[in-house]
Design brief:
By secondary structure, the protein is α/β, with parallel strands linked by helices. It has two domains: 5-203, Alpha-Beta Complex (Spore Coat Polysaccharide Biosynthesis Protein SpsA, Chain A), CATH 3.90.550; 223-263, no CATH class. The protein has ten helices and nine strands. The protein has helices at residues 15-26, 46-56, 70-79, 99-106, 136-139, 153-156, 171-179, 209-222, 224-242, 247-263, and strands at residues 5-11, 33-40, 60-65, 85-88, 94-95, 112-123, 127-128, 150-152, 185-198. β1, α1 (15-26) and β2 (33-40) form a beta-alpha-beta unit. α9 crosses α10. The chain is globular and about 55 Å long.
Amino acid sequence: MHQKVSIIVPCYNQEAYLNEALQSVMEQTYETWECIIVNDGSTDGSEKVAKAWCEKDSRFRYFTISNSGVSHARNFGISQSTGDYILPLDGDDKISPNFVAETVNALQHEEVTLAYGSMETFGASKEKWADQPYNYRVLLHENMICCTALYRKKDFDKTIGYNENMKKGLEDWDFWLTLLNKKSNVVKLKQIKFFYRRKELSRSAEISPEQNIKLRRQIINNHKELYDEYLPDVITLYNEKYNFDRAPFKYLLKYFVKKILGRS
């Protein structure tokens, strides 16, 4: 018997794109799935689109909640799920037809915690994301895992879920730091499996440099023990990439100095 995959699709005012996302779910070669669509207080026709898919196939399930942000919508969707695996998919993105089959196959190895594929953007611009191999040390410095990756429900249940205070972005990176540790085995498939929509105006595009700095500070504060352990490594990586001239580096340096002084 195939293990069930719960595909969690939060959507907020994505009527124009939701059909494409759900069509990519419908086209999966792996058939043991459920798709939980969570309408996060949309004011457009997203509900009509979602309900139409529920009528087409009983594997689609629909819920509506008051607008609370993508982290809460994902957590709510996962709380309603019945699958062995969780796959987040935003309502404006797409996955390749064999995404679920190949990531499930990767997680048949019990030592593997997470599996994902290479990414390509589409929409306003089309380009292959500059993927880099998974490295836990580098993950502390920058996120290389796309938001759509497969993991076990039982592993999610050991965490606090997606941080609902991360309302302005980077919530997926924050969650990977919660889910994974230095011993975690992560599989990155070489083929392009995930398609991330670029829009003229999107939540990620709206993040200013100043907001990005605040979000990075928030991540550090959310994972203080982790950054205490690896802070020298993270500072070295920031220096190698930014040559001391970026505000996140300066914040890390101040944090590091405070930790040293606190121990003296």
